[in-house]
Specification:
Helices cover 44% and strands 12% of the residues. It is of the alpha/beta class. A hairpin with a 2-residue loop joins β10 and β11. It is globular and about 80 Å long.
Length: 491
C-alpha cells in the first residue's frame, strides 16, 4: 500500500492504535509466559473451585468498551479457577499439556484466521495441513505418504471413518439412505471401545444396538476368536457387517488390541478396518512398545489426536487413510454454486470438504507442525517414552506398598490401581472406599486422578501424558491418595 493509499484508508471502529496493539501484545504475552513458568507451582485445581466458579459475578452484556486492564484481570481469574492440564500431577484424563511453541503457533494461526476449507480459500494452510498429515502417518508407522485431514478430535475422526466405511461397502444405497431398507448394518468393537464409536453409529443412523461389543481378555484386549464368531453369527442371520474398529490404546487402561490379527479378520470378511489410536498411537514411537502396534499399517483408516499425546493445544485431531479415492467417493455430492471451482486445475482444485464433514475449518496444522519441527520427532518420542516409564514406575510404587493394589498391568501410560488398607477385604467395601477417596483427591488441589471399572472393580486411574511429570510427582500423588484414604477410614 502506498502512503497516499494509506491516508485515504478509513479507520474502522474496531481498529486500534499502534500503542494499544503493543500494550495488548505485551500484557497478553507476559500473562501467558508467567503461566508457563509457574503452572507447576499452582494447585492442580483451585480448592473449592466449584463454589468459586458459581459465585463469579454475572456481568451484563457490555455495550461500551471494557478497559484492557480489567480484561487481563478477568483472564487471570480464569487461570486461577481452571483445571490445569499442564500441572505435573494432573493425571485425570487423556489431556497433555500445551507446549509454548504450540500455544504461540495457535496465536499466529488465529491472527491469520485462515478458513482452511480448500486450496482456493487457504493455499498456504492447505499445503501445510497436507504436509503435517503425512508427517503424522510417518510418525506412528502407518504410512509415509498417508492422506487425511485434521479434525476437532477423535470423535469427529471416528465418525468420519464410519461414514466412509459404510459408503465403501454399500455405495450409492448408503449415500442415498437406502441402506436402512434392508437388514441392519453392523460394526464390531471391543467392550473397551471409546464412547465416540457407538455415538457415531447412533448419529449416522445405524443405531447403538448394532454396534457389536466383543468380549475382552483379562488384559482388556479384544478376543479375536470371539470377533470371528460374532461376525459369522450375524452373517448367518442376514445382517450386513461393514466395519471393525480396534483400539490402539483404550482410554480406560491403555490396552492395545491385537491389531494384526484383527486386520486379518477384517480382510477375511471384507470389512473396513479402522484403528482408534486417538490416545495411544504415539506410543508406537517407544521402541519398547512398537511391537504392540504391529498391524497398524494394515488399517484402512486411523484416528490420532495430537492434542492427546503430542503436546499440542486443543483442538487437534486427525484422520489418516491411504485410499483417497474411496474417501472422496463417500463425500461426492452436488456442490453449491459459490464453492464450485472455476479456472483452476491440479492441486488448486483440492478441497477438504471432499474428505470430511466440516466446511469451516481452523488452521490447526500450524501448531502441530511447529511442535514437531521445534522439538524434532526424536525429542517428542523421548517425552512419550518418559511418560510410559513413569506409569510403570507408579505401578512399581503401588506394588511395593502394603496398602495399595495394582488392578491392571501397565501397557502404555495409564495405571489403574486402588487403595487397599490392611484388614479391608470385601470387594464392595473396597469399591466404596475408593469411590469416596476420588472426590477428596480431585478437590484437594495437590493431585488429580480419575476412575475406571477394571474387571468389575472400581479403580483409581492415572493417565500420564505430561512432559513435566517426575518420579517425585508420582510419589507425592500416591501419598495424597493415602492421606485421603486414611481420612475416609476415620469417617
Amino acid at each position: 500500500m502506498t502512503s497516499s493509499e494509506a491516508k485515504l484508508r478509513t479507520k474502522s471502529a474496531l481498529d486500534v492504535s499502534n500503542d494499544d496493539l503493543r500494550r495488548i501484545a505485551q500484557l497478553s504475552t507476559q500473562m501467558v509466559s508467567d503461566y508457563f513458568n509457574e503452572v507447576f507451582e499452582r494447585d492442580v485445581v483451585a480448592r473449592n473451585y466449584q463454589d468459586k466458579i458459581r459465585n463469579l459475578p454475572q456481568a451484563d452484556l457490555a455495550w461500551e468498551p471494557v478497559p484492557l486492564d480489567q480484561l487481563i484481570k478477568e483472564c487471570q481469574t480464569i487461570f486461577d479457577l481452571s483445571r490445569h492440564n499442564g500441572h505435573p500431577r494432573f493425571f485425570g484424563y487423556v489431556a497433555s499439556p500445551s507446549t509454548p511453541i504450540g500455544a504461540y503457533a495457535d496465536l499466529v494461526a488465529s491472527s491469520l484466521n485462515a478458513n482452511v476449507t480448500c486450496w482456493r480459500s487457504a493455499p498456504a494452510g492447505t499445503e501445510v495441513e497436507k504436509l503435517v498429515v503425512s508427517w503424522l502417518g510417518q510418525l506412528i508407522g502407518y504410512d509415509n505418504s498417508a492422506r487425511g485431514l485434521l479434525t476437532s478430535g477423535g470423535s469427529m475422526a471416528n465418525l468420519t471413518a464410519l461414514l466412509v466405511a459404510s459408503r465403501r461397502k454399500f455405495g450409492e444405497a448408503s449415500q442415498k439412505g437406502l441402506w436402512n431398507s434392508g437388514p441392519p448394518l453392523t460394526i464390531y468393537v471391543s467392550e473397551e471401545v471409546h464412547m465416540s464409536v457407538p455415538k457415531a453409529s447412533d448419529i449416522l443412523g445405524f443405531g447403538r444396538e448394532h454396534v457389536r461389543m466383543v468380549a475382552c481378555d483379562d488384559r482388556a484386549r479384544l478376543i479375536v476368536p470371539a470377533l470371528r464368531e460374532r461376525i459369522q453369527v450375524d452373517l448367518a442371520n442376514g445382517f450386513r457387517p461393514f466395519c471393525v474398529v480396534a483400539s490402539a490404546g483404550t482410554v480406560n487402561t491403555g490396552a492395545v488390541d491385537p491389531l494384526d490379527e484383527v486386520a486379518a479378520i477384517a480382510r477375511e470378511f471384507d470389512l473396513w478396518f479402522h484403528v482408534d489410536g486417538a490416545y495411544g498411537a504415539p506410543a508406537a514411537l517407544d521402541p519398547r512398545k512398537k511391537h504392540l502396534f504391529k498391524g497398524l499399517e494394515r488399517a484402512d483408516s486411523v484416528s490420532l489426536d495430537p492434542h492427546k499425546w503430542l503436546y499440542v493445544p486443543v483442538d487437534a485431531g486427525c484422520l489418516l487413510f491411504r485410499d483417497e479415492a474411496t474417501v472422496r467417493a463417500a463425500f461426492n455430492s452436488e456442490e453449491a454454486d459459490y464453492i464450485k471451482v472455476h479456472g483452476l486445475s491440479g492441486d488448486e482444485t483440492f478441497a477438504f470438504w471432499d474428505y470430511g464433514i466440516e466446511l469451516s475449518r481452523r488452521f490447526r496444522a500450524l501448531k502441530v507442525g511447529f511442535t514437531l519441527r521445534y522439538y524434532g520427532a526424536r525429542q517428542i518420542a523421548e517425552a512419550i517414552s518418559g511418560d510410559i516409564a513413569l506409569a510403570e514406575y507408579l505401578a512399581q510404587v503401588v506394588d511395593a506398598a502394603d496398602d495399595f493394589e495394582l488392578l491392571m498391568p501397565v501397557e502404555l501410560s495409564i495405571c489403574c490401581f486402588r487403595y487397599r488398607p490392611p484388614g479391608v477385604e470385601r470387594e464392595e467395601e473396597l469399591d466404596r472406599l475408593n469411590e469416596q477417596i476420588l472426590p477428596i483427591v480431585q478437590k484437594g488441589g495437590q493431585a488429580y486422578v480419575s476412575n475406571a471399572i477394571v474387571n468389575g472393580h472400581f479403580a483409581l486411574r492415572a493417565c500420564i501424558t505430561n512432559f513435566r511429570t517426575t518420579k517425585a510427582d508420582i510419589e507425592r500423588t500416591v501419598e495424597v491418595i493415602r492421606e485421603a484414604g486414611k481420612q475416609v477410614e476415620k469417617l
